[in-house]
Amino acid sequence: MPFPTLNTYLAHLSDPDRPASSVWLDSAGRAQGKYFNCTITSAFQPIRALGSSRIVAYEGLARSASAGDAGLSLWKLLDHAASDDESIELDRLCRMLHAINFFRQDEAGQSDLYLNVHDRLLSAVSSNHGHAFKRILDALDLPLGRIVLQLPTTTPQQGWLLNYVADNYRRNGFRLALNAASLAQALAMVSEQRPHAIKLDARYLSGGVSLEPLVDAAQAAGVRLIFKRVETAPAVAAAADIHGLPLYAQGYFLDQPQAGLVSDAALAA
């Protein structure tokens, strides 16, 4: 493992004589945590460069703990959290678990890790978004430069809030990925926020609208375009036909989320 401080922390978590805490390791070495009566762990879905099998990043997803990789999605728990403080606590716990479970695996290589920020946190955190998570990464000596924080879709009326939160995260050293609800919003984000990446629904690959203005603007600004929810072969083929910019895709047609990262042997296959 290339992260000795993390290795020391994992050894501490596996010590049977240590005091009880909110984070522990299961029999497979995966970090788990507890939110109310639910045990949470991580699954990872690759983000692939279209036209090749190359994995450039993984998105960390909160799952209920299970013997295999069949845990249920728990992100909606934040929608029902009793208070803003509890939603903040759960969000930070998930990001910590994902970082631990990602970087403990040798297969992480030089891939980036995309981590979601729930929409409740945009307004729930009063100031200095990202500072608490940066402290966790620094304490474990994990590379903040390989973390991309993925902000939720916002309405035009929330533009000021998005700018405020994005500025805070950048001040703490994070790169950002933004979810766009439309092509027009994506185009505005390229010029106004200039994130590391913009994620768009794969339905925009089905035709009827031109992606050329967005592709050209993203290429000029150095912004990655990632098509999410890629569920069919035609969607992959349509994205591969768009020239002029390296495009990226993520979805169940390409990969099922799982606890383990893709090995070199599996990638070659």
TrEMBL record:
Name of the featured protein: EAL domain-containing protein
Provenance organism: Massilia frigida
SUPFAM superfamilies for the chain: EAL domain-like (SSF141868)
InterPro entries noted in UniProt: EAL_dom (IPR001633), EAL_sf (IPR035919)
Source taxon at top rank: Bacteria
Gene3D superfamilies on file: EAL domain
Residue intervals of the EAL domain: 18-269
Pfam families documented for this protein: EAL
